[in-house]
Request: fold
Amino acid sequence: MKLPRLLTRPIAQPPPHPSAQLVGDLAARLEASARRRLGRGLALRHIGTGGCDGCALELIATRNLVHELESLGLRFVDSPRHADALLVSGPVTRNMREALEQARAAMPEPGFVVALGDCAVDGGVFKGSYAVEGGVEAVMPPDLRLPGCPPSPRQVLEGLLALVEAQA
Amino acid sequence: MTPAEFLRQPPAQGPTHALTEPQWEALAADPELPLLALWGEPGVVRAAFQDGNALRLVALAAPEGQYPALSPARPAAALFERAVHDLWALEPVGTQDGRPWLDHGRWPVLNPLSGRPVRHGGAPPQPEFLPAEGHALHRLPLGPILPGIGEPAYLHLAVAGEAVVRMEARLGYAHKGVLALMPGKSPRAAARFPARLQAEATVAHSLAFALAAEKATGTEPPPRAVVLRAVMAEIERLSVHLHIWAQVLALAGPPALADQAALARETMLAASQIAFGHRLLMDRVLPGGVALDLEERGLSILRDALLLLAEDLPRLARATLRHAGLVEALTGLGVIPPALAQDYTAGGPVARASGVMVDARLGPDASPYDELELEIPLHPEGDAAARLRQRIAETAESRRLLAVMLDSLPDGPIITPLPQRGGEGVALVEGPHGPCMAWLALDDGGLIRAAMARDPAWALWPLAEAAAAGAGLEQLPLLLAGFGLTMSGMDL
Reply:
């Protein structure tokens, strides 16, 4: 009998190691804001605020067998009330601003806001449009910025692991 | 002569028939040609109709800002008319539905593309929804932040017990004002906008935009670029179909199979990164050609990926379609009759799973498919099971096309410059979820004067709303997953 392929070859990549500088910077930020620590794990809620959905597609890819986000102590939840971190992708459109603010308000403290992708970092190519507020920063200060169009699953994991390490 | 016969004659100039008001009225009254898109320019309303796999374009001057509505005879026009009013201040006379669509009352201006936008302030109005009738209905609001990882949309549900009586989608949350960002730029500089209209169709929208720009300037892309674009378009179709396949399995199938479908998608994305330098192939198709050539290493990695998929996918397809629980959950769910798919000018796998054979790869922008003996599968049942079977069958055809194209890549340059001149161009490209149309007009200096992009979601959302009525509430995620519903491309 031939074993299924999943069992015959290693698929998952070893997890990335976030750079010491990124972790150090984040830890200093968190120290300065005197936030309570959350332990080694994060509950994540993604919020698409109007981007092309490329960041969300790559976020979904972080859960596949190659990237195995869940094996690193990270998991996705449906409600911001259960989340430790909001992953915001896309420029914040004027039509989504209120929903984002409500989600942030619903997230228990201490909570993190991650700007995922170039659009969330500063509005990206949609900067200056009448329909766009700009990046996440235009609405609330992000704790972590992950540039890229879109950031690859590995870059996303590296950023999120830095967040886990900085507050562990 | 019927309006359809009139439109089949070549226009006096460019690709668009400039209509008189009586001609527009005759067209509005005769629904023979289905509407693909409706858009505007200051004081002009424009429409594209689908005629088999060909496109017919019309324009009507509307100096008073009014035009005869198309929606009474064509339900596909209803959402477009609302959006056109929001953006260009063009009012459809005789419409049943005058509610705003993209404008939620939160922009700093009214009618931003009308040429004379008015400043706007004040609190946004409460949205109005269609009434639902029945005994003991309750309202279930969902969104705009929906469960899972994805895009924003608000679903207004009227439910009786566990049954959905009506689902009305309110979109526009992802409206970025793309059409206002493109004018004044060269097609090359503006190409980053169609590439970011919708990530699940970045190649398709970029390709439609590139073809439209090439037609407007009379440019012929090099033969190698034509095939490389089709290679990317089929990689995109394959990857997106695998994504939907994985999503459906994750909701109602065994998790191990969902993992394998997601892994097959990851294989294609990782190969795309090596072959073309981007996992989702963004910014790789440009007006005039492609941005990067496919080198020997990229070619061999793509062939390796196809070999892996050739081994895994037939097995995965058999396991998926033999899984009794999954098949039972999908069979009979959300049936779309062919007439309904045609009413909304739906294309793509959803229409083909309702037995409507329409595919832009058979149309006038078909090169290089016209030499590949395209075999498009067709499933007539129209339910969620047929939609999954359709996508699975299409992955096999895309794999075959890719293998053939990679073995017969022409040599030569990959991009040619566009002359700086005026013109108008339109193109239709078959994206993973259906036809993507691009239209643009260039001024005499070769800069964009106006542009439009039509995403397949314009047709898929009304079909999903129709299919949701009568479904159980717990079936809704599974039902919606198979449609390939996206927001950003339609929200513009």
Remarks:
- Residues 81 and 108 of chain A are 6 Å apart (CA to CA).
